[in-house]
Every structure is written in C-alpha cells, then in structure tokens.
Design brief:
428 residues, alpha/beta, D-Maltodextrin-Binding Protein, domain 2, four-stranded mixed β-sheet
Length: 428
C-alpha cells in the first residue's frame, strides 16, 4: 500500500478539526513537536523559542527525545489519531507530502508570509518544492545538514601516532587499527538503527559513488540494491563496524560524541549536528576537532533538511504564532545563530553563497561550498537515514536489514543485499 494512503487510513477515523484548548492567551500559544533534545540541539532550538517568546507568543515545548526522530514521529501519529496534533512539528522530506495528503496540514496559514518574505526566490527550487503541497507552502525549511562527515579528535590521533585524517577507507582502517593498539575506542558509535544506517549510507556513498547511491537508496533499483557494488559496500560496512565502540549498543549519539570530545575515542561518523556538542563543550573547529568528509565521499553530499510543518488549528492566536515562527525561521539573524549552534548551514541561497560574511567556521564554509558545487554535478543526494529520500516505511525496511546485518556475526553481504531488496519491495 502506498505510504500516503497508509497514513491517511490510520487517520481517517479522526476529526480533521483538532481540539483547541489554549485560546485564552493574549497573542497565542503554539506547541512545537521536535526531537532537538541533546545539549547542543537544545541550545539551538532555544534560540527560536526566545525569539518567538519575545514577540509575545507562548511556545509550548513538545520535545520528544530520540535522535533521528523515530520516536517523535510515533508520538505525532498518535497525537494526530487522537485529534490533537500540535501547531507545528518537525517533519522532513517526502513525509511532508504524505502528511499533507491526510488534510491535516494547513495550506493557507503560510501564504502571506511566504509571499511577503519572497521564499520562492530565497530558496533553491528543490528545497521549496519539498516544503509545498500542491503549490502551497505547508512547511518552513530550517537548515541544511550534511550526513557524510567524520569527526576526529586530533589530540587522540596524535597520541596514537596518526598524522593525517583518513581520506580513503584503507587509511580509515589503518588509523582505526592504530587507535585500537593505543588503547582508544577507534569509532564512537551508538548502535541504534538510525545511527547504523547513517554509517551505512556514508559507506554506500564511498563505495558506489553518488550515482550508485542514487540508484540504490533513492531510486530503489533492484539491480543496484543486489549488485556487486552493494555487496562490496556491505562488506566494507562490516569492517567499519568491527571498530565500533563495544559499549555503544543502544547508546544515544550525543553520549558517543562525548567519548570523542573527552578523548576516549578517536572518531565518529555522524551528521554535522555532532558539531553542536563540540560547540557546547567550547571546542573550536580546526583546532580542538576536525571535520572531514567520510573517506571516499569528498565529492558527495548527503543532505538532510530540517523543516517545521504547520498543522490546521482553529484559533487565530495559534495561526499568528505559526506565522511568527515561519517568519523568524527564515530570517537571516535566526539562520545564522541557529546553524552556528546546530552545526548545520543556512537554507537561504544568499547566505550559502557568502558564508564568510556571516562568520561561519571552516567546517560550515566547506559544507556550503560543497553543497553548491555538488548540486551541479549530481553529487548532492538526499539522505535515506534522515527521511529525505524515501517514505518512512521503506526507510524502516533499510533500518531493519542494516541493523540485523551489523549485529549478526554470521551475516553474509550478498545475502543481506538480497534481503534488502526483498524488504524494500514489501514496504513500497
Ligand atoms: C535531524 C537533526 C538532528 C539529528 C539527531 C536528524 O535527523 O535532522 O536535526 O539533530 O537527527 O537527532
């Protein structure tokens, strides 16, 4: 069954007119469901909260812990089924269309803001289209994250006798061996499905290149999913996994990031929200830590765009609050402060083209430069693990097969590739 129909089916029993309990406020209350709950993420979202509160609205925080957002999505679905969706929620990629198809998203409330603030010319067309349903904005994009990063503690590298960040998988394994021999955890990693698949897609990009990544993880081409390149990617994934933190099972990503920051581990493969934890610990990019593309992926950029959707509500105060949030989010001031705290880059074209002017650090400047360059070469591809490439049902199929494969000592890469294709066909 098509994912939109599945979601619509789940919600069909409920009223499309959510309850409204908070009409008494002077300017309005908006509840915002999101999963920005690590120390660094919280510091970033608090910027938005403060700006909205300064404008006289009440921000009802609907934070749901759980990196990658799977728990937040479950909570959101049950809230919607109960007829009580929040005013605003963090939803990404193709999922936005599925939610809009249920009729629960508001296609009117952002119209004037988008027109006044000229969103169509501020944003890349691809980004704008993801935020629209049948031509109308139902979401506001917040920032752009890159997934395929490797985070390094250079002090630990030095102690282990490694003088260069790895740029190939062979160099990565050699560095990991040295880290292990020197008594460090080579690769900090929390064994949660979304983190396993974050590593998986970085390895796929490294082995198969952007074109192969697209065929397999975006187009879901059966030949690419089961072919020799995918088998090779899975073989490399198993090797990468052999260096993962043995205490990392079920561990949150930020607790693993802390191991690199505190000098217990040498590296972490993680999207650039990892930088929020380094920033919170007062560490400086290029000095206290290094961010380099995951080995073999310098020409590729797996993107992940955070966005906030607006749900239909039936009071004017909430609508005004939703508009205020949308206006603030795409303002230059917020774009700079939020991405600086969060580790991402702005989503506005004017800022992406002139990052130095806004005081962004070396990691962010590289990211923006690569984002713009890779958009022209086909190196820019949507992240599967972070809801940008497929529906949640297909993503779930990837997560299951990849995590089982990583954890099964007897798993065979060719067999795993076949399982991947079969699980995806069933989920489509
Ligand atoms: C989100 C980021 C978030 C990360 C960890 C990603 O899917 O896009 O904003 O920081 O998950 O929770």
């Amino acid at each position: 069954m098509n994912a939109a129909l599945r979601l619509a089916g789940a919600l069909s029993l409920v009223s499309l007119f959510p309850l409204n309990a908070l009409a008494a406020d002077a300017k309005g209350t908006v509840e915002v469901v999101h999963w920005w709950t690590s120390g660094g993420e919280k510091a970033a979202v608090d910027v938005l909260k403060a700006q909205v509160e300064k404008d006289g609205f009440i921000w009802k925080d609907g934070a749901v812990a759980g990196g990658g957002g799977a728990t937040a999505m479950t909570v959101l679905k049950s809230r919607a089924v109960a007829g009580n969706p929040p005013g605003v929620a963090q939803i990404k990629g193709p999922d936005i269309q599925d939610w809009a198809a249920t009729g629960l998203l508001d296609t009117d409330v952002l119209k004037d803001v988008a027109k006044e603030e000229k969103w169509d010319s501020l944003l890349d067309k691809k980004v704008a289209d993801t935020m629209k349903y049948e031509g109308d904005y139902v979401a506001v994009p917040v920032n752009i994250h890159r997934i395929n990063w490797l985070w390094i503690n250079p002090e630990v590298f030095k102690k282990a006798g490694i003088d260069q960040p790895p740029t190939t998988l062979e160099q990565f394994y050699a560095a990991a061996d040295k880290l292990k021999a020197a008594g460090f955890i080579p690769l900090a990693h929390g064994g949660q499905p979304w983190q396993d698949s974050t590593v998986f897609e970085s390895v796929v990009l490294s082995v198969m290149g952007a074109e192969g990544y697209k065929k397999a993880l975006v187009d879901l081409d059966k030949g690419a999913l089961t072919g020799p390149e995918m088998v090779k990617a899975l073989t490399e994934l198993k090797k990468v996994a052999s260096y993962m933190d043995p205490d990392g099972k079920g561990q949150d990503w930020n607790l693993e990031a802390a191991k690199v920051i505190n000098g217990k581990a040498g590296m972490q493969i993680m999207g650039d929200w990892a930088k929020s934890e380094w920033t919170l610990a007062n560490k400086v990019a290029g000095k206290d830590y290094q961010c380099v593309p995951f080995p073999g992926t310098a020409q590729g950029f797996l993107y992940n765009i955070d966005s906030l959707v607006v749900f239909k509500q039936n009071d004017k105060g909430t609508a005004a609050g939703q508009q205020d949030i949308a206006r603030k989010v795409l303002g230059q001031d917020f774009q700079k402060v939020f991405s600086t705290n969060k580790g991402s880059i702005p989503v506005r074209n004017d800022m992406l083209a002139d990052m130095g002017k806004y005081g962004f650090d070396a990691c962010a400047q590289t990211s923006a430069k690569d984002f713009l360059a890779d958009a022209k070469t086909g190196g820019l591809q949507p992240s599967m693990a972070h809801n940008m490439a497929t529906t949640l049902a297909v993503q779930g199929a990837f997560f299951d097969v990849v995590t089982n494969y990583i954890n099964d000592p007897k798993a065979d890469p060719a067999d795993a590739a076949k399982k991947l294709a079969a699980a995806i066909t069933a989920a489509k």
